[in-house]
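User: Could you write out the 3D structure of this protein bound to flavin-adenine dinucleotide? I've included everything you need below.
Assistant: Certainly. Input first, then the structure.
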Amino acid sequence: MKRYSLAVDSLKDEEKAEWHRVGQRMLKICQAASDKGVGVLIDAEETWIQDPVDVLTILMMEQFNRERAIVYNTVQLYRHDRLAFLHDSLEAAGKRNFILGAKLVRGAYMEKERKRAGELGYPSPIQPDKEATDRDYNAGVALCIEHIDRIALILASHNEYSNLLATQLLRQKSLPSDHLHIHFSQLYGMSDHITFNLAKAGFSVSKYLPFGPIGDVVPYLMRRAQENSSVAGQTGRELGLIRKELKRRKG
Ligand SMILES: Cc1cc2nc3c(=O)[nH]c(=O)nc-3n(C[C@H](O)[C@H](O)[C@H](O)COP(=O)(O)OP(=O)(O)OC[C@H]3O[C@@H](n4cnc5c(N)ncnc54)[C@H](O)[C@@H]3O)c2cc1C
């Protein structure tokens, strides 16, 4: 994990103090979660703020994920370097003897990332197309299930194929649906047909419910709305399913 370590020594004194305070706050949160036996899922956001988040999250996993997964990092497979990062994280977990907590997402800041890279003239960190994102996402799912004894996976996606793939791989390995190291999650208000079918088949599944100050939640919901318009195919299909169900209930 050398590539992802931070040059803390090069920070100014004030920044070092700030870094220390962030670490202490993370420690408090993870300790409280560990005491209660609940998970802490650290979201991933823009690439330019992600390295310190990765470093801190790995440190927390090293401390709290010895016996079971409490802390989870988020891996955005729309980044072309993240499948390698997942491999590296697994290697670090093996060497340092902790369970890797991995929430796999495709990624929510594609337009912003590409725009910034274009404006500042550096290569875009985003995959060239959706197919490349899908290929790495599904490879990430397969890698996690192959090493499920050492990785706790949260499959966070509305993609029907990726969810189905995970269930098929689990079946192929004769693993139970309620295996402690696999959990599925969709955003509240989206893809209920996936959530409900997974729950019905006995998988551990949840809805992600955003809450917080209106200034933070509204931009979050706006991003989801934009995302929905960029996946018009699947959203249209979902609306079709809702209409069909309404018709069925009306008799
Ligand atoms: C429970 C949960 C937690 C989440 N947490 C986070 C988080 O911490 N951080 C975060 O960034 N996002 C997070 N997301 C959002 C997630 O990253 C995706 O934006 C969203 O779920 C849509 O992807 P999908 O796999 O559901 O479906 P799909 O519809 O299959 O995929 C859409 C995604 O594919 C990618 N894509 C689309 N077009 C292209 C293209 N031309 N080139 C390359 N890639 C493309 C984009 O990532 C797009 O969002 C979370 C989602 C869920 C369900």
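The chain has two domains: 2-209, 212-251.
User: Perfect, thank you.
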